[in-house]
């Protein structure tokens, strides 16, 4: 609700008037398998190279929350 500009009559103040950034972090893993034609033998048949691998990492970003996403008529 950050930035929703909704008035709280009980506390006589606005709730979450300003937008707010939240930091999000995602850890990821990718496993892959590949195959490609590396060349051809003397009879013209393809020679395949195959393999597998893996990689992983962490990504961090910011999410801006600016309102509720609906038209609030509660004011």
Short characterization:
By secondary structure, the protein is mainly beta. It is built from no helices and four strands. The mean pLDDT is 88.
Main beta sheet strand tally, sense and closure: 2 strands, antiparallel
Low-confidence stretches: none
The overall average pLDDT, rounded, is: 88
Q: Could you estimate the helical fraction of the residues in percent? A: under 10%
Number of helices: 0
The oligomeric status of these chains comes to: single chain
The strands making up the biggest β-sheet line up spatially as: 1-2
> Structural class from helices and strands?
mainly beta
Distance between the termini: 14 Å
Radius of gyration: 27 Å
Order of helices and strands: EEEE
Number of separate strands = 4
The outline comes out as rod-shaped
Strand content is over 45%
Report on the structure:
- The protein is mainly beta and 75 residues long.
- Helices cover 0% and strands 63% of the residues.
- The protein is built from no helices and 4 strands.
- The chain has strands at residues 6-8, 13-15, 20-40, 46-65.
- The chain is rod-shaped, with a radius of gyration of 27 Å.
- It starts with 5 loop residues before the first strand and ends in a 10-residue tail after the last strand.
